[in-house]
Amino acid sequence: xxxxxxxxxxRNEFPIFKNNEKKVNGQILPFVYLDSAVSSQKPTxxxxxxxRHMESDYGSVHRGAYGVSIRSSQQFEETRSIVAxxxxxxVRAEQIVFTKxxxxxxxxxxxxxxxxxxxEKSRIVTTAIEHHANLIPWQQAALRKDCELAYISLEGINSxxxxxxxxxxxxxxxxxxxVVSLAYVGNVLGQINPIEEIxxxxxKVGALVVLDCAQSMSTHSEDLFALGADAIVFSPxxxxxxxxxxxxxxxxxxxAELPPLLFGGGMISSVTLEESxxxxxxxxxxxxxPAITEAIGLKSAILWLEECGRKRxxxxxxxxxxxxxxxLQKIPNIEIFSPLTGKETIIPFRHKKVHAHDxxxxxxxxxxxxxxxxxxxxxxxxxxxxxxxxxxSFAVYSDSDDVExxxxxxKNSYK
Length: 415
Ligand SMILES: Cc1ncc(COP(=O)(O)O)c(C=O)c1O
Fold this sequence. Notes:
The protein is α/β, with parallel strands linked by helices and 415 residues long. The protein folds into two domains: 9-30 and 309-411, Aspartate Aminotransferase, domain 1 (Alpha-Beta Complex), CATH 3.90.1150; 48-307, Aspartate Aminotransferase, domain 2 (3-Layer(aba) Sandwich). Helices cover 38% and strands 17% of the residues. The chain has 14 helices and 17 strands. The strands form five sheets. Strands 4-10-9-8-7-5-6 form a seven-stranded mixed sheet, with helices on both faces. A four-stranded antiparallel sheet has the order 13-14-17-16, covered by helices on one side. α7 (195-204) links the parallel β7 and β8. The chain starts with 14 loop residues before the first helix and ends with a helix. The model has no long low-confidence stretch (mean pLDDT 96). Pyridoxal-5'-phosphate (PLP) binds next to α4.
């Protein structure tokens, strides 16, 4: 049984909501935060774990023979084990690398895979709807290795067809494809990609599979390594944890074979003035002082999230997104860009008479936070024939009052 009631009640655990109520003409406007896809808010459990750590246990990790450093190192390594179990029962703590972000994790992968696996005959396959973080590192890898970078496109750009073209995927994932890298859940359209089918295609030709789980980690709990993934990346700041830390989980083969991206303290086994040798395991990719207190926050975020239940959060957010999309469809001049399968937790849209940036500003007058812009996915936004979209995303603390307040504000934005 799950103790936590999702929606308005759980919001009591998030101080940001109380601290951002607005008083307008004597009326209290609640803080309606519908931008969790960019970064989620933090529960008291996470905030307090980080404060406690800094107040009582803070020391640098793996460098001190004294109490606080030993305690910090133990807690830091404990997080590694917790992240491993969070990713699945087949995952070991030694496979977890702490980075700065999903972006850094993908840069380490693209750089390392290019170095070890790619030559001018190789093909990298990704999709035309990725976040820039899963696009630009591969562009750079293709440039450096003078190899092909191919994109699986959308089946169509009409609402009901916003899904990856699997026939094209079959044509692109062939013998010279060395790596396939894609998002599990799209950050703009919120579509859930058919990763099982893509993994199967990739495995048939021996290609590596990299999954960008930045948008899926708070709601999906399958063991993706067991499904055949070779590397998984995500950002704790999108799962109710802190920013400044990222996760890169790799197969043991990749961990052993990929070269580091950053060089310096903590990642070596020997250094002379002539040459240096790298250590093994995750430390090879963790040069420099890591995000220590953030790792403690990440542990707390995972425990908190698992107490809520990822499947429950997914269903909760899907219901609200569905309710929001239904309401939007009744507002004149609104165009929704979503497959609308009922499974999305993100709804992107535009108002044909009010530019996305203006609409986001107008919504802020009603204390409604939504992101507007290209959402770090320019190629996708261009292919949709627009220059910007407004994106609403639903999370553990969202509720139907949020939906109604946001819909009312959108309705009133143009008269
Ligand atoms: C699908 C996806 N990939 C990558 C990123 C980049 O994450 P970060 O900014 O935490 O590096 C994001 C962030 O929005 C994302 O949604």
